[in-house]
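If I may wish for something, please walk me through the protein I am sending here so I can picture the backbone:
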Amino acid sequence: MQATKSLNIVDILLEAVRKGLQEHFELDVSTTDITWNVTRKEFEGDYTIVTFPFTRTTKKSPEQVGAILGEYLVANLPEVEAFNVVKGFLNLVVADGFWHRFLMQTRDNPHYGYLPANGQKVMVEFSSPNTNKPLHLGHIRNILLGWSTSRLLQAAGYEVVKVQIVNDRGIAICKSMLAWEKFGEGRTPASTGIKSDHFVGDYYVLFEQKFQEEYKSWQESEEASQVYAARKEADLDRDSFFKAYKNDYFNDYSILGKEARNLLLQWEAGDPAAVALWEKMNAWVYAGFNETYQRLGVSFDKLYYESNTYLLGKDIINDGLNAGVFYQKPDQSVWIDLEDAKLDHKLVLRSDGTSVYMTQDLGTARLRYQDFGVNRMVYVVADEQNYHFKVLFEILKRLGEPYADGLFHLSYGMVDLPTGKMKSREGTVVDADDLMAEVIGEARGNSLERGALEALPEAERDEIIRKIGLAALKFFIIKVHPRKRMVFDPKESVDMQGQTGPYIQNAYVRIQSVLRKAATADLSEADRYVALDVAEKQLIAMVYDFPTQVKTAAEAYDPSVIANYCYDLAKSYHKFYHDFPILKADIPGASAFRLILSQIIAGVLQTGMDLLGIEMPERM
């Protein structure tokens, strides 16, 4: 991918300020010592230099320093045409000629916004579902964050490897397997017409229903009464006690629980029938997952499976024991003392020598480094696992793993619906497929109300509506800072006037309409347009800032930076479109200049939204 090459006005300004300080005040500073900002909208200017830090050494007031530097810059730097000083802030007005040259240069760069390769390799792990249920709304936020972060890192110059670890073993998977074996009567996704991952998920829900029936019946038994009498807490009535006792019942008394645990033991022992059942049902789930990923426009470079990784890490524990990183208790369990890092003591290997999740995560991290030699690893996992990743990263640092300083947990808040939280076992989760269908349905309804697509062939109309619906879903989720918990509202997400994906798509479509009407225009006339309006310079400055926004978003692992940038750019263009004539501009060269400006803004919007995994339609 060709990287962005453009005039760096900030570097030009800072170097000139450095020279001005040296020439007028004999002050030797580095450009990194100079504080600057984009000028606030209520003041005239494009960039602001902060002069307060230089008052002591120059023995001048901030205003005096600003005035001297401003006069120096106007006299010596063609890129600066005017300045003003507000207290300790020197506001610089960049010359129209600079913006004009930048725009013409950018017009010839179809990959504007992409940064040069930096020689660094980063791995992003995301999605990582369980194979006992289909992908749901919570997975969608994970997937969209992981995918857009991957795209941003690639745009920022990194070589990116996208992976997921599929949680394809454990008691939850055995619950689905057992329910199908007991109650499925040979049904299959093909025979029922149910999407294959939904089919398996239905049996996970069915297991919970059957278990609840069994548990409710047991609570009326003499055995349950004896348990309650022997173990009840003084402040718990019978209903409250049994609500809290459910997991103990599953492990100690439940017939279904015993059968599920036995199935897990059989699988771990390699029993042919158990393994065959596991392979069959997982294959159904994988087929369903792949269909959902394809609809979301997501792919992976490598998949890791917990069934292959759950035994990893034991060699790391042994090495760490010998090195004094871990310690062993009398019962032979292995621990690490992290109290000095305010993380308490953590078990890394059970007394019987079996792994815990931490063990296999240590092993998987090393395996991935051996596979790809990455400099960074980004784990996209909900904030419920914050403590786990703090411990994991601290252990890897103490083990001296070569990639330990490049670990990052992209922690994100959960997603709720306007109706409240979701619960997988109770079947109240909103499946990813159903949610996509709902937002596309909302987009279809809006389109029918406007009637803008009626003349198009049905296939083309459906494709546009698909793009609008998925843009609504993706943007609504990505625009929120990852760490914030959020509520997803399908109806609000497709609002053409709100901070939504369709609103940004509409700006792009509006530009495409203008460009189609001006297909034969002579754009060389743009050279005649030399006196720019403030609104035009503001738009160009926003375009100029795009590579910086990409770099900022990538380094912060925060796609919401680009989502909100695209919204601000679209909003500014919509206002410009209403305030200024484009095709009928009466100033010489203005029409051609504004067409080029529109063309470049469309390109930036398309690139920015593509980094978020959002497609742009040509019509709406």
Remarks:
- The two ends are 30 Å apart (CA to CA).
- Residues 520 and 595 are 12 Å apart (CA to CA).
- The first strand starts at residue 36 and ends at 38.
- The chain is about 55% helix and 10% strand.
